Amino acid sequence: MMKGKLSAFKNRLMMVGTEEPLNKLSLAVIILLDLFVLSILFSGLHDHTKQLTSPNEYMPRIARQVFIDQTWSPSARMSKLQPLVLSDRKRYSYWQRSIFEEEKLEQMHPLCRDFFEKVKALSEDEALKNLFVEREQEIEERDTLRKSQNKAKKAYDTHLLEAIAAKDGSGKKNPSIANLSKNYTARIERLTDSISNIERQINAHPGIQDVWRIVSPENQNRQQVVDDFRRYERWYPLKELGWQLLFLLPIFWVFYVWSARSVKKERRIQTLIASHLLVVAFLPILAKIIELVVDLIPEHFFRALFKVLRSLHLIALWHYLVIIGSVALGLFLVYLVQKKAFNREKVIQKRLMKGACIACGKKLPPSALVCPFCGIKQLENCKGCQQQTPVGGAYCIRCGERTPNA
Predict the structure, then answer these.
(1) Cβ atoms 108, 60 nearer than 8 A
(2) Closest C-alpha among 65, 66, 79 to residue 143
(3) Residue 397 placed within a domain
(4) Which of the four pLDDT bands, split at 50, 70 and 90, describes residue 171?
(5) How many domains does the chain have?
(6) Which residues touch 249 (CB under 8 Å, ≥6 apart)?
(7) Positive or negative, the Cα torsion across 218, 219, 224, 227?
């Protein structure tokens, strides 16, 4: 029964009714319509999915560094905070969104939101922001001086080696290079002292102290953030699929109802188009389900297998399993193509339509009873009227009796 329904549905995709073949130009128009609707569906699905808070929005990269990776050590936290405080100052593009937008903050974990709101308050303090700008400029100047000092030191070392290697005593020390290096050292030290002074002023700010308490490894809320993020990340794929089906299933249901009503009322052209659109609406649903399976199966089912293979030092066997699986899939697909789409009965029917031999496929002379190329008979007796009818036909050309080939 299911096979018959699938066959009838396939006919509705390829024919306008049971007796009217589909013109190639009409088929081209329908395929273009299918591609257009499919692109609109995926575009709408993307926009619809964006409304869902992703794990990266729930726990931004910076928040992961703070609460999970804990890379904001006392020696590095000032340098990590600085680009955050100055982020809006360096945002020149009209399309670049601020990391402190209310919409973004509302999507975050409550503790992450609290962290970003405190940093946002710091970024709005002009005096504090000027201190960070001054620190940034002096660090850049110090880095430039250090590079120049290294070049001067290399030049001085090279000159000393040349002086030592000179056998005639003509090599002399170049005091200007040594003085230049000392000058660089003095300027670097002054900048280092100035940067330290700026950092002391920054650290004295009450808002900065609040941020340091949040990023501290002793923050007792860290484990709660980690557990909440793991839970959110674990359930997000299922939540995402459900959210996407809310968009896809209504349009699929509309096309299904339209297709069913068109078939019932025998509206041939509407049946053809509705059947195509039904397939188009089903493809994103199938794609998203497959995507979920591909994401979850390796994560939850293959993990134990990988662990066993690694413990036995046989992890390379996984490649064998992939090869075996791909070969099995290839055999299955070839079987479907050969037995279902291009089986012997369908090949014979196509050759009959072209006036070719049912065995070798070569063009037959007019009214040929036997193929002159391979000697195979092209006609057989009908069991109903006992008259000759083409081999492979579903019905007798004399009396219309169904043949065993049907």
Answers:
(1) yes
(2) 79
(3) yes
(4) very low
(5) 1
(6) 285
(7) negative
For residue 98, tell me if it sits in a domain. no
CA distance 163 to 154: 14
Is there a domain that residue 352 lies in?
yes
Q: Give dist(CA 391, CA 356) in Å, integer.
A: 12
Position of tokens 């319509």? 33
Q: Is pLDDT larger for residue 25 or for residue 119? A: 119
Contacts of 376-383 with CB under 8 Å at 24 or more apart are none
Contact status, residue 380 vs residue 388, Cβ threshold 8 Å? yes
Identify the domain containing residue 357 by its residue range.
343-406
Q: Distance (Å, rounded) from C-alpha 133 to C-alpha 83?
A: 10
CA 124 centroid distance within chain: 37
Q: Which residues of 203-305 form beta strands (DSSP E)?
A: none
pLDDT in tens, 93-109: 666 678 888 889 999 99
Q: What percentage of residues in the chain have a pLDDT greater than 90?
A: 30
- What's CA 61's distance to the chain center, in Å? 18
Residue 363 lies in a domain: yes
Could you give the CA distance from residue 232 to residue 146 in angstroms, rounded to a whole number? 46
Task: Please tell me the distance from the alpha carbon of residue 108 to that of residue 121, in angstroms, as a whole number.
Answer: 17
- C-alpha distances (whole Å) from 233 to each of 164, 173, 261, 380 are 66, 66, 43, 67
List pLDDT tens digits, range 339-353: 665 567 777 877 888
CA distance 157 to 181: 11
Quick check: 337 pLDDT over 80? no
Q: With left for phi above 0 and alpha for psi between -120 and 50, is residue 154 left, alpha or beta?
A: alpha
Q: Please answer whether residues 395 and 406 qualify as being in contact, where contact means their C-beta atoms are separated by less than 8 angstroms.
A: yes
Question: Which whole-number Å values give the CA distances from 343 to 155, 231, 258, 339, in the listed order?
Answer: 82, 51, 33, 5
Q: Are 152 and 158 in contact (CB under 8 A)?
A: no
Share of residues in the chain with pLDDT > 70 (%): 82
